[in-house]
Amino acid sequence: MEIKYTMQIEDYFNFLAENDIRIKGTRIGIETVLDEYINNGKTPEAIADRYYTVTLEQVYATILYYLQNKEKVGAYFEDYLEYCRRSREEYEKNPLDVVLRLRKLKKDFQSL
User: Fold this and answer.
1) Alpha carbon of 83 to those of 13, 98, 102: distances in Å?
2) Looking at residue 94, what is its pLDDT?
3) N or C: which end of the chain has fewer CB within 10 A?
4) Phi then psi dihedrals of residue 2, to 5 deg
5) Which domains occur in the chain, in start order?
6) At what angle do helices 56-68 and 70-93 cross, to 10 degrees?
7) Rounded to whole angstroms, what are the CA distances from 90 to 29, 46, 48, 67, 104?
8) What residues contact 35, with CB distance under 8 A and at least 6 apart?
């Protein structure tokens, strides 16, 4: 008797926390693939080429998971983008000392 296993789309992912879904076997979050696909218009093949630890099958699984769960995954992705926006804003308000020094050096160099 042969036992067949039907893989579920969720089997492609590790659900580490409400705001942390990773592609199984990688350190890449689904937001990385979705950002490339949705915001940057990259093809699944281009995404798999760029992130060599992710297979083309995993990229397609991520996109399919998004399409099957648009509301939930869309909210997850929007939360991620908002987190990025707030982080950039905070970084610009309080840049590291080394960044300030580099900016000054760049300004000084450009004024030569």
Assistant:
1) 21, 24, 26
2) 86
3) N
4) -95, 130
5) 9-110 (1.10.10.10)
6) 110
7) 22, 32, 32, 32, 20
8) 77, 80, 81
* Separation in Å, CA 27 to CA 1, 7, 92, 101, 105: 37, 21, 27, 33, 35
What burial class does residue 67 get, using C-beta atoms within 10 Å of its C-beta: 0-12 exposed, 13-18 middle, 19+ buried? Answer: exposed
Q: In which band, very low, low, confident or very high, does the pLDDT at 12 lie, cut at 50, 70 and 90?
A: very high
What the block records as the tokens of 99 is: 């960044």
The pTM for the full model equals 0.77
Note the pLDDT of residue 32.
96
Tokens of 21: 């879904």
Name residue, tokens 């008797």.
Answer: 1
Contact 62, 30 (CB under 8 A): yes
CA–CA distance, 106 with 84 (Å, rounded to integer): 26
Q: Percentage of residues in the chain with pLDDT exceeding 90?
A: 73
Hey, what are 103's tokens? 């900016």
